[in-house]
Amino acid sequence: MSRIAVVTSSPPFVEGGHLVIARALVEALRAAGHQAGVVVTPQNRFGRQAAAYVATWLTDVGQSPDGPIDQVISLRYPSYAVRHPRHVCWLNHTMREYYDQWPRFRATLSWKAGVKEQVRRRLIHAADGHLLRRHVTRLFVQSETIRQRVDRWLHVPSEVLYPPPPPRPYRCDGYGDYLFAVSRLTRLKRFDLLVRALAEPAAAGVRCVIAGDGEEAPRLQALIGELGLGDRVQLIGRIDDAAMLDHLARCRAVCFPPLDEDYGFVTVEAFAARKAVVTCRDSGGPAELVEDGRSGFVCEPAPAKLAAALGTLAGDRATAERLGAGAAARVADLTWERAIGTLLLV
């Protein structure tokens, strides 16, 4: 039995996939007979990132109340700045505004702020490169999308290890008459693309339930009204795990069309409920997991293309069932036993 600290960071009041992974990993480690717990390090707002790296560097992960900690598994920036001689990083993402999202972020800044942030970006790249190259014993990443980013900007080699679905009681109660989408409602999740697709002729009559909260909710609600979709598209806000599992069990299929997502837990959770997933070619992690025509559809990121896939699933229950079976087969190999066996240093 080992004592293992699972280290991640989180902004205040935010529940994201990084925390789901951290808690699921701890639960799996405990089920395997280890002592494990989550350590959440600070993640300061823009302009104070250096303080977060320093605070993480100073965080003591060497000792627990029951004795020395044998290993650390870090996840999200800047949690990999913690110091421990047996340190595996299972990276879900660096600070994306300074990596793949830099052009979009830079466009929102004044020229003076842009110069300042460019300097900060270089410093963060230098810090991340040093920490991930020299400060961890092994580096795993949670998707090929992340591996390519780490290689492109930091030139650090890494190995892909996909996270399994969280240990939840997934089930399939059938293939109902609506599509389901769930995530934080931010621009990068592109639920506006989903809403526009549902207004296309190919998706006429298709019903969809969208769960989640975030800054995009008012804009999405306005878009639904503008396109006359109020009788077919429902925003239900944030839901708990039980409600999410219920929707996954009863829906026809799941749509998740983000832009360049790191991993996208929604995909494997839908697979675990025997539901096909519709995503886009530029969606990153989900596009790696979905096999087009076998466990869902991978479309061009255009409303008409997405609408065609949604219409096919909504109009043909047998196709949804066939792709759902393929989805279940796809996720069967992603187990926590295998993930733990890879992550633990022996």
Explain how this protein is built.
With 346 residues, this protein is α/β, with parallel strands linked by helices. The chain has two domains: 3-161, Rossmann fold (3-Layer(aba) Sandwich); 179-332, Glycogen Phosphorylase B (Rossmann fold), CATH 3.40.50. It is 41% helix and 16% strand. The chain has 13 helices and 14 strands. The protein has helices at 17-31, 49-58, 102-106, 111-134, 144-154, 191-198, 217-226, 241-250, 265-272, 285-289, 303-315, 317-332, 336-343; strands at 3-9, 35-41, 63-64, 67-68, 71-74, 87-91, 138-141, 159-160, 179-182, 208-211, 233-237, 253-255, 277-280, 296-299. It has a six-stranded parallel β-sheet. A six-stranded parallel β-sheet has the order 11-10-9-12-13-14, sandwiched between helices. Helix 6 (191-198) packs parallel to helix 7 and helix 6 crosses helix 11 (303-315). The chain starts with a strand and ends with a helix.
Key words describing this protein structure:
alpha/beta, 346 residues, 14 strands, 2 domains, six-stranded parallel beta sheet, 16% strand, Rossmann fold, globular, 41% helix
Q: How does the SSE layout of this entry go?
A:
Layout: E1 3-9, H1 17-31, E2 35-41, H2 49-58, E3 63-64, E4 67-68, E5 71-74, E6 87-91, H3 102-106, H4 111-134, E7 138-141, H5 144-154, E8 159-160, E9 179-182, H6 191-198, E10 208-211, H7 217-226, E11 233-237, H8 241-250, E12 253-255, H9 265-272, E13 277-280, H10 285-289, E14 296-299, H11 303-315, H12 317-332, H13 336-343
Parallel strand pairs: 1-2, 1-5, 5-6, 6-7, 7-8, 9-10, 9-12, 10-11, 12-13, 13-14
Antiparallel strand pairs: 3-4
